[in-house]
């Protein structure tokens, strides 16, 4: 368990450090250029691993894949542009409203309604709207959140239509193709500076490849519920990376807003996971003790077994828990 927790901490730190390094390339490549390089890195890693046979894709497989590719492109661009305008910590915190919304969707429990109200309060405290507020930056952060919610739902759908990594690999290729014109413009203008490219590639490796591999390792020893709750601390890691690497100091009200949103997200994920486990117990006629045994069996199933806490080949998290599969193709909360 301790090894799994250490792996999750390393994954989260790598994720946010990569995002901060990518921000160093904004001045030369712009957010769109950094995203383009990241998409190329993700495609170069995913495609040889998954090797999807696109010629065999049917339309019911193609249309959500194309939508997922569009979501990848929009999610990363909106997040990185938000980072450029309002800072890493604030942008990542706003993006986390996406999985929080999925976790709370359709729920009518008092705790979840309280979490929803807490999230709204957290956003207000985080932003403190005023004449000097960057509403475009905030809006882009919220757009990234909406894209993350769509990402979760599309992955849930594609998990039933395509095996393994074929869906994210194909969608990443679609997204990378959309960014080819961006790379062409940068090349034509002579803006493909070596140092900036290195920063962007580092962002792709540290924020995509390393966290993806680390998360898959962690999920073999850490229960899915704990993994989902731990994901809630990513805004804090993003804020710390912003301070150390980018010098982006936060005001007290911004720290307070981050704390409120992180807390509500953790409570919502825990509540959704508890409801799901309780539902399994009721559906099978088990008592509380039997439900606990069922949850333990689900969380300790060998890697790759379909019964493992809603995972498909150890890659996806159930959208009802407000979690997400390891995001090789995107900022993964930064």
TrEMBL record:
<feature type="transmembrane region" description="Helical">
    <location>
        <begin position="226"/>
        <end position="249"/>
    </location>
</feature>
<dbReference type="InterPro" id="IPR037185">
    <property type="entry name" value="EmrE-like"/>
</dbReference>
<feature type="transmembrane region" description="Helical">
    <location>
        <begin position="196"/>
        <end position="214"/>
    </location>
</feature>
<feature type="compositionally biased region" description="Basic and acidic residues">
    <location>
        <begin position="305"/>
        <end position="320"/>
    </location>
</feature>
<dbReference type="InterPro" id="IPR000620">
    <property type="entry name" value="EamA_dom"/>
</dbReference>
<feature type="region of interest" description="Disordered">
    <location>
        <begin position="299"/>
        <end position="334"/>
    </location>
</feature>
<feature type="transmembrane region" description="Helical">
    <location>
        <begin position="86"/>
        <end position="104"/>
    </location>
</feature>
<feature type="transmembrane region" description="Helical">
    <location>
        <begin position="135"/>
        <end position="158"/>
    </location>
</feature>
<feature type="transmembrane region" description="Helical">
    <location>
        <begin position="62"/>
        <end position="80"/>
    </location>
</feature>
<feature type="transmembrane region" description="Helical">
    <location>
        <begin position="255"/>
        <end position="272"/>
    </location>
</feature>
<dbReference type="Pfam" id="PF00892">
    <property type="entry name" value="EamA"/>
</dbReference>
<keyword id="KW-0812">Transmembrane</keyword>
<feature type="domain" description="EamA">
    <location>
        <begin position="136"/>
        <end position="263"/>
    </location>
</feature>
<keyword id="KW-1133">Transmembrane helix</keyword>
<comment type="similarity">
    <text>Belongs to the EamA transporter family.</text>
</comment>
<feature type="transmembrane region" description="Helical">
    <location>
        <begin position="170"/>
        <end position="190"/>
    </location>
</feature>
<protein>
    <submittedName>
        <fullName>Membrane protein</fullName>
    </submittedName>
</protein>
<keyword id="KW-0472">Membrane</keyword>
């Amino acid at each position: 368990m301790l090894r799994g927790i250490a792996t999750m901490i390393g994954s989260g730190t790598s994720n946010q450090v990569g995002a901060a390094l990518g921000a160093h390339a904004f001045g030369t490549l712009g957010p769109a250029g950094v995203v383009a390089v990241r998409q190329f890195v993700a495609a170069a890693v995913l495609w040889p691993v998954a090797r999807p046979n696109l010629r065999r894709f049917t339309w019911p497989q193609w249309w959500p894949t194309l939508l997922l590719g569009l979501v990848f492109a929009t999610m990363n661009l909106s997040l990185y542009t938000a980072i450029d305008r309002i800072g890493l910590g604030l942008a990542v915190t706003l993006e986390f409203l996406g999985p929080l919304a999925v976790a709370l969707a359709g729920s009518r429990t008092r705790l979840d309604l309280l979490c929803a109200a807490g999230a709204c309060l957290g956003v207000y405290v985080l932003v403190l709207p005023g004449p000097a507020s960057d509403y475009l930056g905030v809006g882009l952060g919220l757009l990234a959140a909406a894209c993350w919610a769509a990402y979760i739902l599309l992955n849930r759908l594609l998990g039933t239509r395509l095996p393994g990594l074929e869906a994210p690999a194909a969608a990443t290729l679609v997204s990378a193709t959309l960014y080819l014109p961006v790379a062409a413009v940068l090349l034509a203008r002579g803006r493909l500076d070596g140092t900036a490219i290195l920063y962007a590639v580092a962002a792709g490796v540290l924020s995509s490849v390393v966290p993806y591999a680390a998360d898959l390792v962690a999920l073999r020893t850490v229960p899915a519920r704990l993994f989902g709750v731990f994901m809630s601390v990513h805004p804090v890691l993003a804020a710390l990376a912003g301070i150390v690497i980018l010098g982006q100091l936060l005001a007290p009200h911004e720290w307070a807003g981050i704390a409120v949103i992180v807390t509500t997200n953790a409570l919502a994920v825990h509540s959704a996971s508890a409801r799901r486990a309780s539902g399994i117990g009721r559906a099978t006629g088990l008592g509380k003790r039997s439900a606990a045994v069922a949850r333990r069996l689900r969380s300790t199933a060998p890697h790759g077994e379909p019964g493992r806490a809603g995972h498909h080949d150890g890659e996806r998290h159930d959208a009802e828990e407000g979690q997400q599969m390891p995001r090789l193709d995107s900022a993964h909360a930064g």
